[in-house]
Structures are given as structure tokens and as C-alpha cells.
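#struct-pred
JK: can someone run the complex with zinc ion? inputs below
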Amino acid sequence: MAKIVRFECSRCAEHVAPDGPQTLCPKCGAPLYVRYDLAALKGKVTRESLTSKPKSMWRYSEVLPDLDPVTLGEGFTPLLPSRKTPNVFIKEEGLNPTGAFKARGMSAAVSMLRHYGIRKAAAPSAGNAASALAAYSAAAGIEAHLFMPKDVPMANRVECESYGAKVTLVDGLISDCGRMVAERKQAEGWFDVSTLKEPFRVEGKKTMGYEIAEQMGWTLPDAIIYPTGGGVGMIGMWKAFEEMEELGWIGSKRPKMISVQSSGCAPIVKAFDEGAKASEMWKDAETISAGLRVPKALGDFIVLDIARKSEGTCVAVTDDETMTAFREWATDEGIFAAPEGAASLAAYKKLRASKFLKESDSVVLFNTGSGLKYIDVIARYFRWDRQALPKERSIGGIIQPY
Ligand SMILES: [Zn+2]
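RT: done, C-alpha cells with the ligand placed:
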């Protein structure tokens, strides 16, 4: 495992000594990156050395913090070639523990908490981050305090309660939940593992970038479409690409990084279109994709910078476009996606129609979670929760032995 050399600010490049748990940059309040001595690892840690490693995100332990991991088998999810669209690959993150990509970041963050002897964690969440923090906290013997909007998908609440977390349902959005954590954390002794307010969730999420490279034979695709709430995965993957180049594992080619948001909450898309460096708080955010209902992301300026310097773009899709894509993935590919994941297919279709992407471009679409986490949301959208089945498909009585 890699020794942390320093923490480095993502905005002002301030260096912070690698002792003890970290939060934000002490100078400017921006997120911190974990930095290792990659030059020393170059040539010693090779792509070939990975073959004997576990099939989880911890196979990349040589470039992850040196601590005893709290793991439930997260990561190394399949990269499925689309059955319908040539050159499209689906990164199936729904197969992670707790059914979403959030497991990666929380595995790393909770490992850090346990390493430093921190007993109480708190986080605001649109749903899946809470489930993941609850699960990893249970595994680590840490108390989890979770704040979610009261209309969070049912599975997230049921999971969090089951894992023994302390759940508060808030009449508001994730930004309101975040404020409540910030107001109470000092008095309660909670460590705040909010998106990007500590540097380790990025370290977990960056493994998605390592995996895509390894699964594509150490090349990168022409484009990656990533559903963006907080944007940690996009930030993490970009970090992974830079690290891999420094290690000599890949060249300098980068995918076009494409951020997809919902038209009901698209602060980063708006900022991208306006040429702004950061986003503004989105008012009256509303979308079926709970994880995309993030009205203002702390790392928005990093996501915008990555989209621009990779010659990517940011695109908004409506809930109806998302749910049409959801049905397509289910019926064409056998993939039961989270709405956020389906949004990346909706974005791909838009970008093909606008000729931003060509058929010959290799494109990775992220399905960030399993649709099973959204059963109530999906059933409500298609009204399957109300419609009775036609009579000939509804058989009375009990199932008999046959
Ligand atoms: Zn700074």
C-alpha cells in the first residue's frame, strides 16, 4: 500500500502534512487530494503485478492509502459490451455491496475512520451514500448518523435502519441535510464524511478509472458518460488517469469526460453552457434520479474543469428521456439500472443525435446503481403500483406442488 506523502488542495495547491484525519483545505476550504510518491513506485508497481490481486477495488492497494481496509468486496465490477450499440460499454456498478458505486468511496472513507480511531461518522445523502456508509460503519463497528430527504427511495431508508444507523429524514434536499450535519457535528463529535469534505472517498472512487483501463487492456475509451450529483467519480477517475500515466501504465490520451445531469437539477450543465467556472445553487430541484438532486456540488469547479480540458461536455436529460432509456437497458441488455445510470444512456443518445459522438467512438456509460434500490420509484413512474394485471395473467389461489 502507498504511503501518503501529503494532502494537496484541489484549488490553491496548498500542501497539508499527512498526519491525522483531514477535512478541507485550511487556506481556501476546497477539497483535498491524497498524494503519494508515484515516481518512487514507477517500475516497482506494474500492471502485471495486479494479476494475483483480489478482484475488488483493493487490487489497486499499491495506489491506495496504507491502512487496513474495511471491505465488503466492493469494486471490480463488470464492463459489459452493449448488445445493441457497437463500441458502447456499460460499467455495471449496481453489483457493488449496497447496490451502488457509493460503496467504493465509503469503503475507503470508513477504513480511514477506523484507522484513526474515529467512532462516529455523519453524512447527508440523497440515498445511496447513506446506505453505503451505514453498511461499512456496521462492518467497522462505527456509529453512523445519516441525514436524507424524507422522500428518499424506500430501500435506502430500510437499509440504513437495518444496519443500525441513526437515520434523520429531513423535509428538504441534500443541501439542507448537509447544513444539519455541519451545524451539529462539533457538539455531537461526528466526523463529517460528506461528499468531498474529506479526501478518502475520492480515493475509493478513483478505482473506477483504474478498472476501466485494466478492463480495456490498458487503453482508455474515447468518452466516458458519468451521471453527476456530487461528481466524485469523475474527479476520482481523472485523478486515476493522471496517476496511471505517472506510473507508466497508460499514455497521455484522455477520454472526453461527459457529465450528465437531470433537467430538473442541472447546475453544472448550466454553468458549463454559460462558460462559468463554478455553478450556482439550483432552485426547486426535482427529478426521479434521486442521486442527481444535488443543487450545488462542492466540487463543481473541478468537474467543469475536467469536462472542458478533456474536450468533453455536460448534458441534461429529462426524467422521461431517462425512463425511456431505463426501459431500453432493461429490455435490450437485461440491465435493471438505477435512474441515474439510465440517464447516461439518455445522454449518449442525445450526443449521438447531435453528432458530438460518432458510432465508431468507444464510450463507457456508467450505470451507477441497481434499479432494485428504486423499486418504489420505478413502479410509481410506470404506474405498475396501481394497475391490476389483465385477468388472464392473474391466477387466483395458492401455488400447488407440481
Ligand atoms: Zn486551498
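RT: quick notes.
Residues 34 and 185 are 23 Å apart (CA to CA).
The chain has a mean pLDDT of 96.
JK: thanks, will look after standup
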